[in-house]
DNA sequence: TTAACATATGAGCATTTGTTCATATATGTG
DNA sequence: CACATATATGAACAAATGCTCATATGTTAA
């Protein structure tokens, strides 16, 4: 058994950062949104339609994903087109999905 | 923009499974516990001491991690010695940590 | 400009979550 | 056996979370 001072400890800032990423991925609706956006850019209404969510719920979750810089968007006419902005997080998501699908 | 039926959709069971894994990793104290256990086997009291948590809090979280089969344990005298039981999840954790440390 | 559409945002609410406190269970010791 | 030690577990509670409803903001079209 190691002494406490021999452990590799994590900076609290790193712990918080990683926690935010995993929290973002942990919610089923955000997971589906990110998985959808990893396949194609979507405007907000499309996400709501495909995932059967309300416009408001989608928008709230997009605000959260935006704050974490996991998605970005651009305006296209009346719509805002969202897409993934963090390949590494998408990679984590795909790995976890693969793991769950091939246990 | 794809039609809904052209998307790769995730089975609800897979979504739930992945969600549980990410939820487990998302809590700072569970994250520290798993990170610690990935470095060495620990008995419950040691985890509590190293991470500055109560015995009860540690035990509750271990029960959760056990239910997800992320940790296993064996008895050793009066103590229960816990260790990681899912290399893939540890790999996800380490990747996320690396990503946060080298942004 | 005005009306319609697309999205964002704030408040309120029900659910989930992580902790503490008290107590139960199980093992080792004299 | 009786007692101490190590861990587990249930109840209760505060904080965080994700949704809905109502409304605000911004863009396009007439």
From TrEMBL, chains A, B:
Q: Which CDD domains match?
A: HTH_ARSR
Q: Entry's Gene3D superfamilies?
A: Winged helix-like DNA-binding domain superfamily/Winged helix DNA-binding domain
Which GO MF term does the entry hold, naming one? DNA-binding transcription factor activity
Domain named HTH arsR-type: residues: 10-103
Q: Which UniProt keywords apply?
A: DNA-binding, Transcription, Transcription regulation
Q: Which InterPro entries match?
A: ArsR-like_HTH, HTH_ArsR_DNA-bd_dom, Metal_resp_trans_reg, WH-like_DNA-bd_sf, WH_DNA-bd_sf
- The leader peptide range reads none
PANTHER family from the entry?
ARSENICAL RESISTANCE OPERON REPRESSOR ARSR-RELATED, HTH-TYPE TRANSCRIPTIONAL REPRESSOR CZRA
Q: What is this protein called?
A: Transcriptional regulator (ArsR family)
């Amino acid at each position: 058994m190691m002494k406490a001072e021999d452990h590799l400890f994590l900076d609290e800032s790193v712990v918080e950062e990683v926690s935010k990423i995993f929290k973002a991925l942990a919610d089923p609706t955000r997971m589906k949104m990110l998985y959808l956006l990893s396949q194609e850019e979507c405007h907000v209404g499309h996400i709501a339609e495909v995932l059967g969510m309300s416009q408001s719920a989608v928008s709230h979750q997009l605000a959260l994903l935006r704050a974490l810089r996991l998605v970005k968007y651009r305006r296209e006419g009346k719509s805002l087109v969202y897409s993934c902005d963090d390949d590494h997080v998408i990679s984590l998501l795909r790995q976890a999905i693969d793991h769950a699908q091939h246990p």
